[in-house]
Amino acid sequence: MSSKSENSDFIDMVYNYDWSSTQFGPMDTWDPALRNAANLCLRTEFPMCIYFDPPNWALLYNNALGKLAKDIWPEIFETYMNTRFNRVITTGKGFFGCDLRCKVQRDEYDEDAYFTYTYSPIFKSDGTICALWCLAQETTQKVLNTRRLKLLEDFGHLTSNIESLESACDIITKKLKNNEDIPYTFIYFVKHNLNTSSESSLIAHLISTTFDDDDKEKRHIPDYLPETHEIIDLSKDVNKSYGTYIELKRINIQSIIRKLRMLVLIK
After folding, report:
1. Cα dihedral sign for 65, 69, 70, 74?
2. Does residue 151 lie within any of the structural domains?
3. Rounded Cα–Cα distance for residues 171 and 231 (Å)
């Protein structure tokens, strides 16, 4: 959150900005409705911006003073914003969107983000729309938390279908197939083997993956993934990193789902 001094500096920057160098002209020539909206936008504590000069849609937000929305938000302007802007202009009514999924670029890569927002028209004294209010709040973390809790809830409902440890693994990987938060899953069973010298070794067997067919006989692991081993001798490959393997004893089958973190190994 910005400090009071940062907010004050930004307000001063907006008022002192050379608007005469833009197509909008000096701020004191703006329509009173737009000037009042700009004053309110600058002094509110809620995330807010103004899009004005339709259909160009220039932006009053942070350092994007007078820049076009299509240049500031190239990833989502045509797909999401412009159609909704036009809807408000056409109907004269506001638009509300809840947890809208957008692909945005952050830190030089694309990611999904979610926003709840509203666009409201700002009318000039002659009744025409000169700009849009935009109040917005990013809800990405809320959406992710809800989605992940729903997954755990679904696992809880599936416990009645468990007949064995193997069937639990099958249920887990089927439920995680095409999951948006866990790209792929491999489940290994680890057991002790005694070799000829009476020394114990840990052998991990790949039991189930999210790439398995329903008939359990075929597995289609994409070429872009690292080498996948059907069997791993953990005692011989101690210097390799296969994740953290925790031995799961065959105890009460109803507790298997509660031990999900022990079963699922994400590469």
Report:
1. positive
2. no
3. 21
Measure the CA–CA gap between 159 and 260, rounded to whole angstroms: 12
Do residues 17 and 136 share a domain?
yes
Which residue do the tokens 């009173």 mark?
Answer: 32
Burial of 134 (0-12, 13-18, 19+ CB in 10 A): buried
pLDDT computed for residue 87 by the predictor: 94
Cα separation of 99 and 143, whole Å? Answer: 7
Give the integer Cα–Cα distance in Å for 82 and 165: 52
pLDDT in tens, 21-73: 877 888 889 889 988 888 888 888 888 889 988 888 988 876 678 888 998 88
Joined together, the tokens standing for residue 248 give 């799961």
CA angle 260, 144, 51 (to 5 degrees): 170
**pTM over the 0.85 mark:** no
Give me the domain span that covers residue 112. Answer: 4-142
Same domain, 63 and 29: yes
Edge-first strand listing for the sheet containing 48-52: 58-60, 48-52, 129-138, 109-123, 95-106
**CB-CB neighbours of 142 under 10 Å:** 13
- How many domains does the chain contain in total? 2
State residue 226 phi and psi, 5-degree precision. Answer: -65, 165
User: Contact at 8 Å (CB) between 11 and 43?
Assistant: yes
Place of tokens 């309110």: 40
CA torsion sign for 51, 52, 54, 58 is negative
> Taking all residues of the chain, what is their mean pLDDT, rounded to a whole number?
79
Q: Which helix (H) or strand (E) holds 43?
A: helix 32-43
CATH number, domain of 79, equals 3.30.450.20
98 within a domain of the structure (yes/no): yes
